[in-house]
Write a structure and sequence with these properties.
The complex is a heterodimer. By secondary structure, chain A is an alpha+beta fold. In chain A, 23% of the residues lie in helices and 35% in strands. Chain A has a 15-stranded mixed β-sheet that branches. In chain A, strands 13-14 form a two-stranded antiparallel sheet. In chain A, α5 runs antiparallel to α6. In chain B, β3 and β4 form a beta hairpin. A 13-stranded mixed β-sheet of chain B has the order 5-1-6-8-9-10-11-12-13-14-17-16-15. A 4-stranded mixed β-sheet of chain B has the order 4-3-2-7. By secondary structure, chain B is mainly beta. Chain B contains 5 helices and 17 strands. The chains are: A alpha+beta, B mainly beta.
């Protein structure tokens, strides 16, 4: 398939079921909301090494937040709901509770919920207090700055992790430019995040390794420097650099939409070839064929 | 479809109207509705003797007339909407668990006493012991929201355990008397001895208050919960200013004669 000058490989991205939550963090200024959002979603690129994947979904204007202050919404994903609950407590406790002026709210109505504020309240050492407003319970935790307000329960949903695009070009600058254009376009899609730095991974991995202790290792098939050394290289002649964008979403549709706009943007920005990663279709529940995304 | 009851004339004696709640009327046929007995003084009176009845019983009931001799309207209601188009007697909405009860005039004493859920809105003023405890009970209101657009009498929120009481006007003496938890917002100021014997509850007020000496000043700050709560009240139709939402409040902790985990938050005047 072709999209302008770009070859689009007739393959599909294979994604997995994860559990996801939306966290709304507000603060006294956009800058402090951003600080909290970055910390909250830091070191959360891949479940392989970080136990969860997270990213800032978007900035929120004051009129969009529960307490009328500027904020950010972040999405956090983990392989199972128990793990998601633990990650929420750990991360909100260590990065939002500690951040000046912040408050933290659930951003997702869902049948299933994780207890977050109800765990963090113990930081109050008995001085915490709860308030119920409109059927939602909040915890007021006294802190040295003043008071931290956190909602008790956060909605969690079955989500999708591991949607992806792989972008190939003749050199790093061109490939990265195309990946940046794709990531920028994807950021406009609500309900999806790209968990890697700047939304882009330069080190896509395969399952397993020749070293038994490692559960993942470099995706040698797509390393341009190994093209002449491995039998199963997928790097075409003339390609000098490859980037991957991983997409996690609260449902399949946001992932599909992010891939669609990202694919178009990457092609327009000079990608030579765009493909996607899969495991033969046998592992992941969600398949996103690139054929369906090309106009 | 709305069931409308129109008062024929003032009843000869106080009426026990606890039978009137949307879910209790909803299953009745018209003949059963006509015969429904309410205690009026020491004798029963049929509903049709007291009211002209029109419409179909469902989850929306409207009662028109001066209901100040009717006690317990909407008591224990569990859903639907009950609109009382006039002033009402004592114990309106007491023990209600869900639904919306709107009083378009004034409410008598003990409105919302022992309430557990739902929303009680009083467009006029409320009497004593708003959201308070029933006689002999330790705990008063245990959940839900009470909004009063006028003033409230003495001992509002007495024994309050959970829930929110918001009063646009002035709240009488001893607000939050022996309250266990929950929140009282007095947009128009507080009477004497607020929070007497209070254990954990919050009282928020916008003007200086005559505090008991058993309350101690903690600090002046912007409590994040107050902003959230006031925005909710504004959304429900109370006149809340941006200054009140964004303002700094002085926190007084007490009652020192009790657990001392309660608080009275007083809005600081703008510099």
């Amino acid at each position: 398939m072709r999209l302008g000058d770009t070859e689009v490989v007739d393959t599909f991205a294979e994604a997995f079921t994860m559990w996801g939550a939306r966290i709304v963090v507000t603060a006294g200024s956009p800058a402090w909301a951003a600080h909290a959002g970055r910390s909250l979603t830091g070191f959360a690129t891949s479940v392989i090494g970080c136990k969860c994947e997270a990213g800032i979904e978007r900035e929120l204007a004051a009129e969009e937040t529960p307490d009328g202050r500027p904020g950010v919404s972040a999405l956090l994903f983990a392989p199972d709901k128990e793990g998601l609950g633990k990650r929420l407590v750990e991360r909100i406790g260590q990065t939002v509770l500690t951040c000046p002026t912040t408050a933290c709210f659930n951003g997702l109505s869902a049948e299933e919920e994780a207890d977050v504020g109800g765990q963090l309240r113990f930081f109050g050492d008995g001085w915490q207090a709860s308030k119920v407003l409109d059927g939602r319970r909040y915890w007021r935790i006294p802190v040295m700055e003043g008071e931290f307000l956190v909602e008790e329960r956060f909605g969690i949903v079955e989500a999708v992790g591991g949607g992806n695009l792989i972008i190939l070009a003749e050199d790093v600058a061109t490939a990265l430019g195309a990946a940046e254009a794709a990531a920028d376009a994807m950021r406009a899609v609500e309900g999806a995040i790209m968990p890697f730095p700047g939304g882009i991974a330069r080190s896509g991995s395969k399952v397993g390794s020749r070293y038994k202790a490692l559960m993942a290792s470099t995706n040698h098939e797509l390393c341009p420097t190994l093209r002449a050394q491995v039998d199963d290289s997928q790097v075409p002649e003339g390609i000098g650099s490859v980037f991957e964008i991983v997409i996690d979403g609260l449902a399949p549709d946001p992932v599909r939409e992010a891939m669609r706009v990202g694919l178009a943007a990457a092609a327009k920005a000079g990608a030579r070839q765009i493909t996607a990663g899969n495991y033969g279709g046998n592992l992941g529940k969600h398949h996103f064929p690139l054929r369906e995304l090309v106009p | 479809m709305t069931l409308t009851l129109t008062l024929r004339e003032a009843p000869p004696a106080p009426v026990d109207a606890e039978a009137i709640a949307p879910e209790r009327l909803a299953g009745l046929r018209r003949a059963e509705l006509d015969r429904l007995e309410l205690g009026c003084g020491n004798r029963p009176m049929a509903l049709s003797e007291l009211f002209g009845i029109s419409g179909t019983p469902g989850d929306d009931v409207r009662i028109e007339g001066d209901l100040s001799r009717f006690a317990g309207l909407g008591a224990g209601m569990t859903g639907g909407r009950l609109t009382l188009a006039g002033s009402v007697g004592p114990h309106v909405g007491s023990g209600m668990r869900d639904g919306e009860l709107i009083v378009e005039g004034d409410a008598g004493d003990a409105a919302g006493a022992g309430m557990r859920g739902g929303r009680l809105v009083v467009r006029g003023s409320a009497g004593r012991r708003l959201g308070g405890a029933d006689p002999g009970a330790r705990a008063g209101m245990r959940g839900g929201e009470i909004l009063v657009h006028g003033d409230a009498g003495e001992e509002a929120g007495a024994g309050l355990r959970r829930g929110l009481i918001a009063v646009a006007g002035h709240v009488g003496a001893a607000a939050g008397l022996r309250a266990l938890a929950g929140t009282i917002v007095a947009l128009g100021g507080l009477g004497a001895q607020p929070g007497a014997g209070m254990r954990r509850a919050s009282i928020v007020t916008m003007t200086d208050a005559p505090l008991l000496p058993t309350y101690a000043r903690a600090c002046t700050y912007r409590p994040p919960f107050v902003g959230l709560c006031l925005r909710r009240l504004r959304g429900l139709g109370l006149a809340v200013t941006n200054t009140q939402i964004d303002g700094r409040y002085t926190r007084w902790s007490g009652d020192g004669l009790e657990l001392g985990r309660g608080e009275i938050l007083i809005l600081e005047p703008e510099p």
